[in-house]
Amino acid sequence: MDLTDVRGMLAGRVFADLGAEVVAVEPPTGGGEWPVSWARPEQWSVLSYNKKSVTCDAGRPEGRHLLDELCRGADFLLLSGAPAELEALDLGYERLAKANPGLIYVTMSPFGLTGPKADYADSDLIVWAASGTLSRNRVGSRVPIRISSPLHGYFHGAVEAVAGALLALAERARSGRGQHVDISFQNSMVFANMLQGLYPLVNDVAAPPDQAVTIFPTVWRTSDGYVQFTLTTGPATGHFSNGFIRWMDEAGMLPEEFAVFDWRDLPQTSGSGLSSSGSTLERFAAAGLDQAKRSRLEEAIRRFFLTLGTRDLLASAHERRLLLSPIFSVADVYANPHHAERGLWFSPEGPASDGPRLVGRFARTVPDGFQDRGGPGEPGSANADIYRRWVGLSDGDIEALRANGVI
């Protein structure tokens, strides 16, 4: 059962793709008082694909009874929201587990259900900031900037909810007991970005973000777009920069003073190349690359990139084995033949349709084990099927509930 809002809907979509029968519960009005209505239509289409839709007015005694009966027959119950929001649903784990001891009860909340921050308000940006991730996404003393799409922070938690639920399923196969899986979106983002704590292993002592400095830019403008390119240094990654410098030299755009540097002999920096402590700059200067020289090289690289288009840069970088990638727009990703070959996009109306494309399966398996049941249809389109099979209602019972506005 999926009673999530847009923060947790991805969990049910992943379960459905893996073959589970996922029943999304919505209000009879199709939106408004139920959290799922937070999703915009295009988000709802993607996140609800492969699910079945039933309607239920949980504010009425008959609707509350239906929800309890659905939970009695479910393997998983997916919920998302702050503790107060979840409490308002009156679907507590202890009560439901008495009727269904094998139930795997999954909650996804901003900061977890316990702790001093449990009841704090949230947004995707708050989740990013509270995880510590934004602190690294800045240059010098400038303020941090937002990362990725507005729902990205929640999606990390939703996917971890699936992993936690499957672990609980494995335990249930052994012991027969269900569990409560308590997912914190903040904790999920901390875990997803834990590698930032490993930067000191390839650098000297990492400076606080407001004291960090930029060695070289990592985003460069081309004649028709932008690319991400890092001038890496040190014995582990300096050979990539040596190859790039040779490319500039062959094009006649490298100032002669930089032809003598072996980038493997320069101080090792983190793979991002974005920030490093002040002592690393001192070592760069001691190796012959002080601030004035770095500025001249940066200007030469800037002019070099402006002479080439993004596609030409990518083709040459691939041939020369350089760490360079175009910064794609969504339109670029959609048009990329690589993603078409792997079936990233699909039309819910069939491959020949000219209608909108949705994001497809998150992985490929051989043999193909993913399910494609189609879109959820209109709210309540699976009422008759689910209420007959899961709850045991007759056609007459279902029609009476529909006539009275319960479903």
Automatic annotation (TrEMBL):
Keywords on record: Transferase
PANTHER family reported for this sequence: L-CARNITINE COA-TRANSFERASE, SUCCINYL-COA--D-CITRAMALATE COA-TRANSFERASE
Pfam family, one: CoA_transf_3
Keyword Endoplasmic reticulum in annotation: no
GO molecular function, one term: transferase activity
InterPro entries named among the record's database cross-references: CoA-transferase_III (IPR050509), CoA-Trfase_fam_III (IPR003673), CoA-Trfase_III_dom3_sf (IPR044855), CoA-Trfase_III_dom_1_sf (IPR023606)
Keyword Secreted recorded: no
Official protein name in the record: CoA transferase
